[in-house]
Specification:
The chain is of the alpha+beta class. The chain is built from 8 helices and 21 strands. Bound molecules: zinc ion.
C-alpha cells in the first residue's frame, strides 16, 4: 500500500488516522494547525484528496467530510482518502472568508505554476505572503500524493448546489490530446457527483484568468499538476442545511465509486433536487443593475428563466420604482446564485446565472509577455 505522510499523520492500511499540519507560526506563540484525516483501505487504489472550508464561512464541506469518513467506509475502501475538513482554521473560528493573517482571498494564493511569468523585477514574488506560504505547503502534498481532488465550497445564502468545470489550458497543439484526456476525467468526476450538484462551466478563459482562478486550489491542481479536480458549491454559506449535507455525502461516495474506490451500488440523491440543463451552461454575473437602489429578487435559485424575463424589482429607499422599476435578464438560462445584499450600485451583478456556453472547456495558454 502507498505510504502517505502529511504533517504528523501517517497512512495505515485499514485505519483512519488523525493529526495536523503545522501551517503557520502565530506571533502570539501558538501555531495555526490544519487538520488532516488519512483513511486507508486494505486494498490498492487511488489517493483522493477531499478538502473544505478554505473560505471560513462556508461550512457544508466540514460536515460532509465528517459524515463521510467512517469505519464503515474504510472497511470497503480501495486506496486512500486524504480529508482536510478545513483549509483555513483561523477563518472558520472568526466566521469569515479570509484568513486572520492575510486579508485576501485564500483561494487565489496557490502557486502560479505553468502560468508564472518570468519577472525578475517583482521582488514580492520572492516573499510569499503568510497564507501564500500555507498554500504552497498544502500544494506540495497534492503534488506528492494526489490522484484526484474535490474542493467543497458554498456560494450565497440563496444558491443552488453546482459543480464547476474549470477551463483547462494547454500549451501548443502537442498538449491538446493530453488536455482532452484531462477534460474527459474532469467531466467524468462532475457527472459522477451527479444530482449532488448542477453542472456548470466556469467563466470564459479571459475572465477565468483575470479572476485568478488558476490560483484557486482546484484550478492549480487541475491546470498545473494536471490532476483531475473540481470545485463544488453546495448552496448556502454561513448555515448548515442537513438535507444538503446528507445528499452531498452520497454524491461524494458516488464520486469514490467512479474512481474505483468503492464497489457498492450508486446511491440516489433524494434529499434535494438540482436542475438538469438541456445544454452545457457557463457562469455569468448577470443581470446587472443600472441604478443605485434597493433590489428585491423575484426568482429562486435553480429556476429556469427566459430572455427578457423580470428578475428583480428595483426601487429607491422610499420604495418608489427606479427607471421602469425592474431588472430583466438578457439571456435565457438558469439562476445559480442570488446576491445576499439588498443594496446595489450601477453595473453591479444581482445574481450569477448559467447560460449556454459558447466557448470550449479547453483553451490555449495565455501569452506570457
Ligand atoms: Zn468558497
Amino acid at each position: 500500500m502507498k505510504a502517505i505522510k502529511i504533517g504528523n499523520v501517517k497512512s495505515e492500511p485499514g485505519k483512519i488516522n488523525y493529526g495536523f499540519i503545522d501551517a503557520m507560526a502565530l506571533p502570539t506563540g501558538t501555531v495555526d494547525r490544519i487538520p488532516v484525516v488519512i483513511a486507508q483501505g486494505n486494498k490498492e487504489g487511488p489517493t483522493f484528496f477531499l478538502t473544505a472550508n478554505i473560505h471560513g464561512n462556508e461550512l457544508t464541506g466540514v460536515a460532509v467530510l465528517h459524515e463521510l469518513v467512517t469505519e464503515d467506509l474504510v472497511r470497503d475502501l480501495k486506496g486512500t482518502i486524504v480529508s482536510i475538513p478545513t483549509l483555513n482554521p483561523t477563518a472558520l473560528r472568526l466566521y469569515q472568508r479570509h484568513p486572520e493573517y492575510q486579508d485576501e482571498d485564500p483561494n487565489r494564493q496557490f502557486p502560479e505554476g505553468r502560468f508564472a511569468k518570468p519577472d525578475e523585477e517583482d521582488e514580492d514574488k520572492k516573499y510569499p505572503k503568510p497564507f501564500e506560504q500555507v498554500a504552497n505547503l498544502l500544494y506540495s502534498y497534492f503534488e506528492k500524493y494526489a490522484d484526484y481532488h474535490l474542493d467543497i465550497h458554498n456560494h450565497s445564502l440563496r444558491s443552488v448546489p453546482y459543480s464547476i468545470l474549470d477551463r483547462i489550458f494547454y500549451d501548443g497543439v502537442e498538449e491538446r490530446a493530453e488536455a482532452e484526456e484531462l477534460a474527459k476525467k474532469q467531466l467524468g468526476m462532475v457527472e459522477a457527483f451527479g444530482a449532488g450538484a448542477m453542472i456548470t462551466t466556469d467563466f470564459p478563459p479571459k475572465k477565468y484568468m483575470n479572476l485568478k482562478y488558476h490560483r484557486s486550489l482546484s484550478g492549480a491542481v487541475l491546470n498545473t499538476l494536471r490532476i483531475p479536480a473540481f470545485t463544488v458549491e453546495l448552496g448556502s454559506n454561513s448555515v448548515l442545511i442537513p438535507e444538503i449535507v446528507t445528499g452531498a455525502v452520497k454524491a461524494t461516495r458516488n464520486l469514490l465509486r467512479w474512481a474505483g474506490m468503492l464497489e457498492s451500488p450508486k446511491e440516489k440523491i433524494t434529499e434535494y433536487k438540482v436542475p438538469i440543463p438541456e445544454y452545457r451552461i457557463r457562469r455569468i454575473e448577470h443581470p446587472r443593475g443600472k441604478h443605485s437602489g434597493i433590489v428585491k429578487l423575484l426568482v429562486g435559485p435553480g429556476e429556469k428563466v427566459a430572455k427578457g424575463q423580470v428578475i428583480a424589482k428595483i426601487t429607491d429607499i422610499h420604495g418608489r420604482p427606479l427607471g421602469d422599476g425592474v431588472i430583466r435578464t438578457e439571456h435565457e438560462g438558469y439562476m445559480i446564485a442570488l446576491r445576499d445584499q439588498m443594496t446595489v450600485y450601477p453595473n453591479m451583478g444581482i445574481a450569477e446565472m448559467g447560460i449556454k456556453d459558447e466557448d470550449e472547456i479547453l483553451s490555449p495558454m495565455p501569452p506570457k509577455d
